Amino acid sequence: MNINIIPLKPGHQKWWLGFIFILWFSSLSAQTFTTKGTELYDYYGYYFRQKFKIEVNGLASVADSTFGLESVLLNLHHQRVSDLKITLESPDGTSIWLSNRNGKDSGANYIDTRFSQFGKSGLISAAVAPFTGNYRPDGQLEFLNHGQNPNGTWKLYIEDLKSDFNGILDSIQLIFGHHPAKAIITQKCAFENIGLCNCPNGKNDCELLPDLVIIPFFTKNQIQEYAWDDKQYPGQLRLAATIANIGYGPMEITGTKNWFCGTTKVDSSQICPNGKINRLLVNQKVYSRKNAILSYKEFPAGTMYFENKPGHNHYHVDDWVEFRLVKTVNKKKILIAKGSKVSYCLFTTGILYNSDVFSAIDGKQYGENMPNYGLGNYPTCNFDKQGISVGGYDTYGMLYEGQSLALPKNLKSGNYTLEIEIDPHHWYKESNKKNNIFSMTVSIGKQQIN
Ligand SMILES: [Zn+2]
Asked: In whole angstroms, what is the distance from residue 339 CA to residue 343 CA?
C-alpha cells in the first residue's frame, strides 16, 4: 500500500481558500488521494461548514464489496478537537461522520488518525486525542461503498461548533483498494426477500417489530459532572446515549405531509408566527411477514422538526429520550432532576458485531447472529424517512447539544441513579417496552462547592 507523507505546513496561509493538491498513486493494492491543508475557522457565534475537496479519478466505476474506500487518514491540529464535527461525503452525496465532537474537554489534534471499518484501536468515540492509530469512525464507512461511482469530487466537511480555537487541517487521504469497508451480510433476510426473514419463536407470520435498548458502554465511557464554576457547562451532568435496535424489525419512521404551527396546518418546514419551529406529524412504519409476503402498516406516532443548533441542521424526532437523576431512599425512588425530553435524528451510526465488547447488553451478546441482522437502511436525517436497522445503533455523544442534565444547586454529594428512558411517551411500537429504561449508579458532588 502506498502512503505518501505530506510535510506539515506552517499555519495561517493567506490562501486559506484551499489549495488542493491531487496526488495519485497506484499500486497493486491501494490508491491514495490526498488533499493538503489549510486553516480551520473558529466558531464565532455562528458556524461555518468548511469544505475540502478531494478529486478522485482513474478508479473502477463502482465502489462495492470488492473494491472501494478502505480507509481515511487524517492529520489535523486543533487545541480542542471536541469542538469539531468531521464529515466525509462521496461524489454521489452520501455522507458519514468520521468523528463528531470526540476528544472530551481538552484533547488536542488528530495525528496519523486512520479510520477504517474494523480499526484495531477501537471506536474513535472511546479514544483519547491525538487518536494516533486505526479507529472505527462514528459513522459507517461501508455506506460509501454501496455501488456508487467513487470517481469525482469527494468532500470533507469540518465544522467548529465552539469558540476559542482555530486549527489547521494538515492532510486528508482517501485510500481505495480491494479490501473495502463493506456490510457484513450473514443472512438473506431483506425487504425484497421477506420470506427469508425470521419471526420470533419460529412463527411463520408476524409483525417485525423493533426493540430499543441503551448500550451501557457508551454512557459509562462518556459521562462527566461539571462544577458550578465551569465556564462551559456549569452544574451539568453530561452523558452519551447510544440506542440499539435488538428487535426483529427496523425502527422506521416516515414523515407525513402534515406540518403544523400549533393547530394550524402549514405547507412546509418553517418558523411559525410565534417564532417557534413547526412540527411534522410522523408515522411509524411496521413491517409484517405473512405467507412469506411483505406488507407494512403505518401508525401515527410522534412529531419531527428541523433542528438548527450547531452540528445538527437536520430533522429530529421529538422527545426521543429523557434523562433523570433519582435517589432511592427506603426503597422509594425520589426524582432529583429531570432533563427536558431530548430529540434525536434516528439513523444507524454503527452496527453491532458479536466480537465487540460493547455489544453485550444484559448479559447477552448481539451482532451478526441476530435474526434479521442488518434489515433496514437509514443513513440520513431527512424528514421523509429515518430509522435504526436491526442490529444498528444511534449514538449521541456527551458533548452534543442536549446531552445533559441540570443538577440542582447544593445537591448533596453521594451516589445517585441515572436513568435514560427511550420513548418516554410510549408513542412508538416495540416488541418490548419494558427494557426502555436504562439505569446506572453515578457518584455526584466530588467537584462541587457546597
Ligand atoms: Zn442531530
From this structure: 12
